[in-house]
């Protein structure tokens, strides 16, 4: 088991009023929100501090500015924005994760997320990439932008629909080092308790920061 003090800011790409891409019966923002909300629930379960950068702006530029501002309002270790890719050619497919060029921490987190999604969805790995994206460029913390798969590719979305929960769990585990299905423990000052508040007997030497 691990006890961690990691702090994460996370946001779903776009907003309810600025929705992003769509295809094959899926809406990018809706799917991103689903992934982000599940990721947040895993953070809450496992005692990882998490901040939701959700913003409902109808203007794409304003939405980006507001999400970055929410991420920068907290001293976090990692900032994540969750997206789905799209292209006019329905054969375009695969997973890629962006980070800020020159950020060693960003590259590390991008690789962890990329490998986790590839393992879960078995989509084409398009690798980790750098670009002058507003999210990765303007966040104070190391930042990654996840392009889960192509919403415009039917086979990609079939895999996503089947394995999306496992994918989010694998990304959570890769980034935090905590098994998504495990039970976290913490010290209250007088005893160790698990995520239900029940006291547990633990050798403190198995814990790591």
Task: Briefly summarize what is shown.
The protein is α/β, with parallel strands linked by helices and 209 residues long.
What order do the helices and strands come in, and which of them pair?
Layout (H helix, E strand, L loop, with lengths): L6 E6 L9 E2 L2 E2 H18 L3 E4 L7 H13 L5 E8 L9 E5 L4 H18 L3 E6 L3 H5 L4 E8 L3 H23 L8 E3 L4 E3 L15
Parallel strand pairs: 1-4, 1-5, 5-8, 6-7
Antiparallel strand pairs: 2-3, 6-8, 9-10
Description:
There is one protein chain. The chain has about 210 residues and is α/β, with parallel strands linked by helices. The chain has one domain: Zn-dependent exopeptidases (Aminopeptidase), CATH 3.40.630. Helix content is about 35%, strand content about 20%. The chain is built from five helices and ten strands. The strands form three sheets. A six-stranded mixed beta sheet has the order 4-1-5-8-6-7, sandwiched between helices. The chain has a two-stranded antiparallel ribbon with strand order 2-3. It has a two-stranded antiparallel sheet with strand order 9-10. β6, α3 and β7 form a beta-alpha-beta unit. α1 packs parallel to α5 and α3 packs across α5. The protein is globular and about 60 Å long. The N and C termini lie close together (about 10 Å).
């Amino acid at each position: 088991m691990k006890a961690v003090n990691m702090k994460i800011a996370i946001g779903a790409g776009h907003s309810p009023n600025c929705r992003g891409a769509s295809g094959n019966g899926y809406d990018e923002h809706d799917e991103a929100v689903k992934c982000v909300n599940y990721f947040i629930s895993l953070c809450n379960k496992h005692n990882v501090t998490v901040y939701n950068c959700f913003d409902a702006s109808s203007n794409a530029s304003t939405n980006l500015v507001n999400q970055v501002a929410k991420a920068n309002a907290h001293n976090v270790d990692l900032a994540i924005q969750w997206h789905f890719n799209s292209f006019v050619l329905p054969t375009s497919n695969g997973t890629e994760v962006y980070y800020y060029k020159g950020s060693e921490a960003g590259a590390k987190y991008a690789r962890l997320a990329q490998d986790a999604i590839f393992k879960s969805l078995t989509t084409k790995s398009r690798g980790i990439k750098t670009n002058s994206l507003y999210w990765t460029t303007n966040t104070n913390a190391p930042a990654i932008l996840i392009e889960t798969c192509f919403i415009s590719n039917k086979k990609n979305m079939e895999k996503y629909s089947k394995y999306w929960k496992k994918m989010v769990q694998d990304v959570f585990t890769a980034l935090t080092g905590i098994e998504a299905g495990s039970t976290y423990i913490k010290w209250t000052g007088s005893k160790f308790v698990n995520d239900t508040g029940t006291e547990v007997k633990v050798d403190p030497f198995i814990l790591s920061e």
